[in-house]
Batch of 2 targets.
Target 1
Amino acid sequence: MAEDLLINATTKEGKYKELIPQVKALISHEADLIANLGNICAALKFGMNFFWVGFYFVKNDELVLGPFQGPVACTRIKKGKGVCGTSWQKNEVIIVPDVEKFEGHIACSSLSKSEIVLPIYNSKNEFIGVLDVDSEALATFDEVDEKFLNEVLGLIKF
Ligand code: SME
């Protein structure tokens, strides 16, 4: 299997549309969740040129860092804290155009300027964690990212 990603599109929507079938192919023959989550982080980070892409999962009432790509990050986030903990508490996708304007934002890197956090649910529709994506530019994320990142999450058997 070829592991290289090929993205030719110049628009964000076009890039996601090229990337998603490749992500699907990448994970379709592998049953191990951690292996697939690792590759999904790499595919999103390098395919979409994001600054940081990673998963946090609920463990003992905290979000704990899972597979990610990018600079080192904080390992534990409490419910209601930061963008991730707020997404958990409100049970909703949170798009932050400017992290400095989000009260309580947890800065893992001063280079991160905007962010999107999407809740993850298991097959029983229980909240189990979040996908967090950071950008070095302001206002990177919108409903296009929400739609396609949710599509990526829909490919994964949690
Ligand atoms: N900024 C996040 C913390 C995780 S890092 O961005 C990797 C937050 O406020 O929850």
Note: The first strand starts at residue 52 and ends at 59.
Target 2
Amino acid sequence: MKVGIVGIGLIGGSFAVDLRKEYEDVLLVGYDTSPENLDQAFELGLIDKKGEVSDWELLDLVIVSVPVNAMLNVLPNVLDQISNDCLVMDAGSTKRPICEVVADHPKRRNFLACHPIAGTEFSGPQAAHQGLYDGKTMIICEVEKTAFKLQERGMDLIKRVGMRVRYMHPKAHDKHIAYVSHLSHISSFMLGKTVIDKEENERDIFDLAGSGFESTVRLAKSSPDMWTPIFEQNKDNVLETLTEYISNLQDFKNKMEEGDFKSVYEQMVNTNRIKEILKGIPLTKTTK
Ligand code: NAP
């Protein structure tokens, strides 16, 4: 199988590592606007060769894993280049704008709209690693718009990297993901900002930072190049989550000012349910 990876960073590179392990005869071809990232991907053995124009029509599968703003130009261009038998999957963290931009493309049936719910706060090919997708969920949108035999190729890949599938409408995806992913990143960025603004001597932060602070602020290490276009494309949903979050913060503050620590306590007890809710999310590898 010949696979093209467009955007050979954390997400594309991690697919490359798993595909090399799972498909015996795989040839991995990399495309990236960053010559440094492309060189690094080659040196790390993520790709077998740097892609040339003549490679497009030979590819069986293309994974497009560029930031979501670039995705809106790159994806239609990729669909223009590929053969009629090639499957194109994306990994973008938004789905409505991406599905809309290819809605009327003559090769729409070659495209499978995907969002792997897997990642880390690190970027670039050096962050790619085996097993990133193991036991995680792949959200697929508008599956009925993809040619059936190409769906099968995508499903085989998804299964081999150990993911389970959840089908969603692009609008529902963008609404729900705003709560569980986009708001978490904003919350972490603003927690980091609040502490940095307050602490003039940064040494104190490092001395006092416990594992609670470190784990809550982990997502604030994420790439602004990747996250700004996500917030921009999902602005309405993200603003809705922020309104609700700020209202909860204000309510918590009000209760403290009023000395109502019974309510403060109750809110935390009610929120402890998150332990049970998260237990319901399986973390083990799905059966192949
Ligand atoms: P990344 O590590 O920064 O990799 C993206 C790569 O694409 C970089 O090498 C980047 O080069 C390159 N690139 C940028 N514009 C391009 C273009 N027009 N054509 C070709 N290559 C281009 O980012 P990532 O974390 O892998 O994220 C990739 C995609 O996956 C994004 O759509 C993101 O929303 C989605 N996603 C990310 C996560 C996560 O946790 N990171 C999880 C799920 C989905 P430069 O560095 O020079 O820009």
Note: The domain at 2-168 is CATH 3.40.50.720 (Rossmann fold).
